[in-house]
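Structure ticket #2291
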Amino acid sequence: MKTKTKWLVLAGIAVATAAITIIGLSRNGQPQHFTAKVERGEIRDVVEATGMINAVITVQVGSQVSGVIAKLYVDFNSRVHKGQVVALIDPALLQGALLQATADYENAQANLLAARANLDKARAAMVQTKADYDRTVGLTKDGIMSQQQLDVAKANYDSAKAGVGGADATVSQAEAQASQKKAAVEIAQTNLNYTVIKSPIDGTVVARNVDVGQTVAASLQAPTIFTIAQDLKKMQVYAKTDESDVGNIKVGKEVTFKVDAFPKETFHGVVSQVRMNATTVQNVVTYDTIIDFANPDLKLFPGMTAYVTIPVATVQNVIKLPNTALRYKPPLPQEEILALYKQYGIEGGERRLASNEVAAAEKITPTGPNAIQPRTPRADNAVVWKLHRDNSMEPVKVALGITDHAYTEVTSVLHGDLKEGDELVVRTVMPKSGAPGGPGGPR
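Resolution: structure written out below.
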């Protein structure tokens, strides 16, 4: 009951306050100005971006042969060493293929031996027929043997010589077949060796994509069985930075970032690379900024979202203005504004932010690995409106420096007077121009 009475009293006070404000505005006919003070302090211009934490080197361990997973020797978060067996594929089929290839190779070797024996036999026959031919030539000259017998001896010799050439070709063919079968044996042995899957690096298993008994098919591409991160004590952040911020990021710059898992801790890193490979999403161009950092306690895991702050410039003890004052424009006719400029010696006015620039500056972007924090477009100089005690406004033209997107540095005052503690108009509420429902009613 007491709580209900308390809320009723507060609601009554709020209604009364609003009524007094409206009555005051309608009675005195003066606009109500909301102001912010000129301050002195520090401004840090930074580039803010989000990114994803990754290991420096990540290797996907796959299988080059198809088969059923027989054993898994490691699991998630297991520490592995280079050459360590991490999985085994059932080798039965590949062992059979190796035995068949070995038998074919032995058969080819036997054929090679037979071909070589036939070659020796053909050479012996050629020697015999050559001797017969030579004797026939001599006897024919002496008239002992006829010309027909000489022709037969020559034909036998030519046939034996051709047989040697054929036997030699058969040997070459058998040697080639033996080499082919030997290569088939080596391929079968290699495929059998691929059934034993080993770790290619020292690292930590961050993903296991198969279970025992699952069939992997390597016909089109090697299936991934494990993902191994080399060293989780040295990691990187892949930060997506807007193209307008890339020129302000320098290699070797120290940066800070936070993660959702440890919201109260700030982690430190160093920019190691700004990659030139652009990524375009909905006409927004971003570049990957690589940030190296140490992770000695293994607190941070691959895949975490990091909120990165990259310092660009810092100034100390300077006059700074709220950015809302830079976007303010008094609700006066253009002629009156130009008259005020002339009265206070300001020529040309100032560059105002376009409506789309203001919207981009005030827009709250979603968080995530691809979210980009916008930077507020800003001119080199601007006109702000200082409020006097008599509720009149004075335009002051200032030169601007760096900004932290909430306050902007004033490098110098070009026209007028501006000092710490002055009130700058950031918003104006105009009074009603007449009674409700009457001529010139409320706007």
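Closing remark: The radius of gyration is 45 Å.
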